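@channel sequence for tomorrow's demo:
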Amino acid sequence: MFGKKNKTVESPIRVETIIGKGTSINGDLYCKGSIRIEGKIEGGEVVAAGDVFVGQGGQILANVKGRNVIIAGDIRGDVDAKEKLEIVPTGSLIGDIKIATLVIEDGAIFKGKSESRKGNEIPTAAATKEEKEDNPAKN
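structure tokens (generated this afternoon):
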């Protein structure tokens, strides 16, 4: 950690939810804020109103939607990042992406199709479960 310039995923903003190492979730996951995943999530989708951080030990076998998505672990599914998708050298993404900004660092793995969105375009299905519950007219 000290002395080397190995890049680690640090959350510059507050992370409200953490899925720790050794934790496994099967099913959909909806988060009002930002989430950090060090464990395993599979099935359905992971939707965050804020940012999604996937740590080096983190694994997601589901579709992911969030404002910014930073991957140091592994995602096997489609990613819809409203603003930026970043895959660091230890990260791997197998799936299609829809993004405004894309950063893939040397050593990172990405296999899939990409679709760019304009900076002000809103993701079509990125409403969280809470947003749907708060505004029944959208259902």
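heads up for whoever presents: Residues 1-11, 124-128, 135-139 have pLDDT under 50 and may be disordered.
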